[in-house]
Amino acid sequence: MSTVDQQLEEIQDTIESEIPPDITVTEVKYEGPELVVYTRDPKQFAQNGDLIRRLASKLRKRITVRPDPDVLTPPDQARAAIEDVIPEEAGVTDLDFHEDTGEVVIEAQKPGMVIGRHGSTLREITQEAGWTPEVVRTPPIESSTVKNVRNFLKHEREERRDILEKVGRQIHREEMSEDEYVRITTLGCCREVGRASFILSTPETRILVDCGDKPGSEGEVPYLQAPEANPLNSIDAVVLTHAHLDHSAFIPLLFKYGYDGPIYCTEPTRDLMGLLTLDYLDVAAKEGRTPPYESEMVREAIKHCIPLEYGDVTDIAPDVKLTFHNAGHILGSAVSHFHIGDGLYNVAFSGDIHYEDTRLFNGAVNDFPRVETLVMESTYGGRNDYQTDQADSEEKLKELINETYEKEGKVLIPAFAVGRSQELMLVLEEAMREGDIPTMPIHLDGMIWEATAIHTTYPEYLRDDLRDRIFHEDENPFLADQFNHIDGGEEERMDVAEGEPCIILSTSGMVTGGPIMSWIEHVGPDPDSRMVFVGYQAQGTLGRRIQSGRDEVPIGGGGGRTEHLKLNMDVDTVDGFSGHADRQGLEDFVRTMNPRPEKVLCVHGDERSTQDLSSALYHEFNMRTFAPKNLETFRFL
Amino acid sequence: MSTVDQQLEEIQDTIESEIPPDITVTEVKYEGPELVVYTRDPKQFAQNGDLIRRLASKLRKRITVRPDPDVLTPPDQARAAIEDVIPEEAGVTDLDFHEDTGEVVIEAQKPGMVIGRHGSTLREITQEAGWTPEVVRTPPIESSTVKNVRNFLKHEREERRDILEKVGRQIHREEMSEDEYVRITTLGCCREVGRASFILSTPETRILVDCGDKPGSEGEVPYLQAPEANPLNSIDAVVLTHAHLDHSAFIPLLFKYGYDGPIYCTEPTRDLMGLLTLDYLDVAAKEGRTPPYESEMVREAIKHCIPLEYGDVTDIAPDVKLTFHNAGHILGSAVSHFHIGDGLYNVAFSGDIHYEDTRLFNGAVNDFPRVETLVMESTYGGRNDYQTDQADSEEKLKELINETYEKEGKVLIPAFAVGRSQELMLVLEEAMREGDIPTMPIHLDGMIWEATAIHTTYPEYLRDDLRDRIFHEDENPFLADQFNHIDGGEEERMDVAEGEPCIILSTSGMVTGGPIMSWIEHVGPDPDSRMVFVGYQAQGTLGRRIQSGRDEVPIGGGGGRTEHLKLNMDVDTVDGFSGHADRQGLEDFVRTMNPRPEKVLCVHGDERSTQDLSSALYHEFNMRTFAPKNLETFRFL
């Protein structure tokens, strides 16, 4: 008998000795980090108030109780019982019964009302229906991504359970080594921005943190061929800090190369990764490049995702516990905290962070039980990388909009679909509501609408006050009338271009393709209109060239010819809307960090930024700091 | 056709276009780093003066020409021809004909006379006999190690050729990667003395430098399980800097774990490694420990050795050239210089070094075409690790000997078999020759005699003036009459103990076992005798305890009882005979190094020594210095 089976047998014994004798446990197994307990008496389990909580605390595991399939109430009967229990105001839109596991997925507009105070409604559901409920939110704005991911996972439910069981057994395997060490290997994003990727390893375990692309490079991939990462199927777990492509683009590639394990991320990160990586493949195909993997691999990745919520302490290996904390950067972005061994060592990877609160998100969490080493982003770590205060930036943006409106022109804003667009939507919606700028249509083109829909599906991940507003449908700012989703293609764009003054948010954010190209063609020649850059424009992009004053741009003419278009619109830049902490924010993050780490690795920034920041943190806080190169391995402990 | 075969075909074409039309080349192949050219016309090849040299320089390869086996002169006929050519004073002791390769191994007391001026005699041998000669020295003192190794290699000749051919094809494989980097991973001997081991890697190649044990530990092995070293059969080459067990003990273990490639070392290192690792297994067995590998693995290691001479620039991988330089530490010890890529990067591993000349060896070489990074030993790198000048130490030793002689006592010196013993033999021989101490017997017990025999087999590796003396038999100091090899066991020891005043050199050097234990029993109780420590006594050894004043030692009584023996002899310590550079020597090595490296990794010393030295080199020479931990990976370039 394997040691995991022995362990499960012992756990079943413990459970049986703790529960009332009238409750029968038929099976105990691992599914990913959870312990699943099958019982013939799910209703009694649910009646015994905090029994599950007590067991969880005794066994120090997350526990899910499921009815043994043999005793399952027929779905029709269960449906009636469930509909009886859930108040109508919860707005249930779907009930999905899984007879193999006795779970019922309840999709509702107000999940909180399905859960009830301290889970009381959920328990009532089990008591009355005998099924184990799982609640998801009905997207307030329909999202094809969320729908596709949910349908896909439903379809792959059986295989997913096999995957989770395998992962669960891996996590709970016996520790083999007597050595003690913690190592971090840099596979990318050191002295460069892009291709974030690290290996965190102990004698037992290898964890890959992020696996992104490098924008502006010719397909540079993280150093996955490094021995520290090989063979790829020896990696225990992949942790994805957030969905931006410079962190996620090559996650699906791992499955092509033989990785077959779990991906830990938040639920919105999973969905956004799906959206962004599929778009990444699309763009590659459109540009005539061979995509590095097929869309099938994106599905593999999604199938292997194990979503975690902020604050959940989760076993992901025999000697590693992972906890995500809000990073304030984009939806679902996470500071990833690893607790290694039993009190042995703690490492936090910041991922990308925003230290101050923004309209969308609370500021990054920097409060941990313990942390000895911090791996920290340094995008704006340079000695002069201070950004304009967002309040001032908003004032400037509003002025520019008002000026343009007076000339009856249009404001064209190239923006990244995920994060910056939603922040701007909030700025613009408020400005109109408060009368700072005239109410006019705000057209959203490219993936912005879809990304916004995903934001509204996961309001728990947004800033407290925004979340509260979204919970009350009539205050959900993303549902404001001004917002118009451009879904009528080129025709709609031409209508808009010929129409009244308006604001247009369109991808791509660096003017490297996508619908912004059409908008430039339609709006660019108009001297009364204006383009406003709100995000970083990388060297070599058309955005950077326009920003620098170029007033002629190539557009695709008929028959493969390239024509040149004269730009007459005004061009302005408003900084201060970045999703990244600036130099001050990075220093503040470390200054107020509790506890303060002993060592900091400054990564995810160009050579100057990482070295400036490393040196500043050393001098200011007297900690050991490093600006590593790619392909180095640090040993801690 | 593989790229190596293509390459060989092109090389054969080139050779054929360079040589006179009457010379036929039948085959060209790689054997290890050498290119072997088979010809039907070996005599003509030899007649054409510097043809081989010209080809070697054109092809930039080391070239050996061998007669095609089809045209081989019968051995009897060849023997007569060879004996005709070689002058009698050369003292040929053996001719060994290998019909498979057309090579004849000539063992002679004076190899120089077989070689002739610029190899003229060798060429004459080929011209007259049609065979390719290879010359080895007849050991002036019979060495069972040298004899065994030579016989073994003769016996395994066929398999060895297969190994060499495989290695040769590996070395000359096509380069695959477009990346450029150089990495060093520390597998041992960082912030500790012992278990020296490093991985030097490039995108193409992995090289393991040393693989030693850690004396005084409970079998601590280098971190061979590190991913940077795995799988072991992905390692291209093992480089052994010298034969001491803290560098060599686990070289044979590699073959047990699946390594199957070449070991580059000097010829004396190969033989001494054989001697020391077999003894290591013996000691383990005697002490009731399970040896980590079997003696069969030592033979595997020897079979895979490719001996290099100091100064030979040798291709050991598609992108790596290795050159050994004298390190001054023990016989055959080498500073190992790696030239990576075509002028890309250069790394030197000091191994263990002695910077000043000693009686046995010239001081370590620190003159290289280029070197960016130095990995340097730090045994005596601590801020106070200055040693007594050897001249003063010799004076003190002679005084102690004279005092003891006057009391008619005996001088007992525990000594390491390899290196320190021979240095002392030279000191004592000279002192007697010059009348500084009375002439008396010097008894050599343990492996000292055998190690000395190996020294005399390879005089090329000794200090210039000593080498010259050994070439003249009547001046070979190791053949002096005073030296007596204790080969009569306990009986002889008892006779010596009861006899006239004398000096006894015996292993083990730290009094942890071996014949020194008997000597203590016989000589220890005599108040007129004296023990003199000349080497480092590690914490926890009996040597250290006696040195610190303990005057009772446990001896094995009959029937498993332990009895205690009262020591009445005087106990003294004379330092200054170390094989390691002291702090001054280490600094001098770097100060006079040409060119001076940009970076230094201070290793092979305890935490304090490596950090002291690292800090001193940084402050003194303004270079980047490190005192790494085990299991770190540095990236250069």
From TrEMBL, chains A, B:
Gene Ontology BP annotations: DNA-templated transcription termination
Keywords assigned by UniProt, alphabetized: DNA-binding, Endonuclease, Exonuclease, Hydrolase, Metal-binding, Nuclease, RNA-binding, Transcription, Transcription regulation, Transcription termination, Zinc
Binding residue positions for Zn(2+) 2: D246, H247, D352, H604
Binding site for Zn(2+) 1: H242, H244, H329, D352
Pfam families to which the protein is assigned, alphabetical: Beta-Casp, KH_2, KH_TffA, Lactamase_B, RMMBL
Free-text comment on the cofactor: Binds 2 Zn(2+) ions, which are required for nuclease activity.
Ranges where the Metallo-beta-lactamase domain occurs: 194-416
UniProt entry tagged with the keyword Transferase: no
Needed co-factor(s): Zn(2+)
Region (KHb): 73-140
Region annotated KHa, chain positions: 5-72
Domain K Homology, chain residue ranges per copy: 98-165
InterPro entries the UniProt entry points to: aCPSF1 (IPR019975), Beta_Casp (IPR022712), KH_dom (IPR004087), KH_dom-like_a/b (IPR015946), KH_dom_type_2 (IPR004044), KH_sf_prok-type (IPR009019), MBL (IPR050698), Metallo-B-lactamas (IPR001279)
One GO MF term attached to the UniProt entry: zinc ion binding
Occurrences of domain Beta-Casp (ranges): 421-546
PROSITE patterns: KH_TYPE_1
NCBIfam families named among the record's database cross-references: arCOG00543 (TIGR03675)
Family note: Belongs to the metallo-beta-lactamase superfamily. RNA-metabolizing metallo-beta-lactamase-like family. FttA subfamily.
Function: Terminates transcription on the whole genome. Termination is linked to FttA-mediated RNA cleavage and does not require NTP hydrolysis. Cleaves endonucleolytically at the RNA exit channel of RNA polymerase (RNAP); the 5'-3' exonuclease activity of this protein degrades the nascent RNA released from RNAP.
Assembly, per entry: Homodimer. Interacts with RNA polymerase (RNAP), interacts with the Spt4-Spt5 complex.
Protein name: Transcription termination factor FttA
Biological source species: Halospeciosus flavus
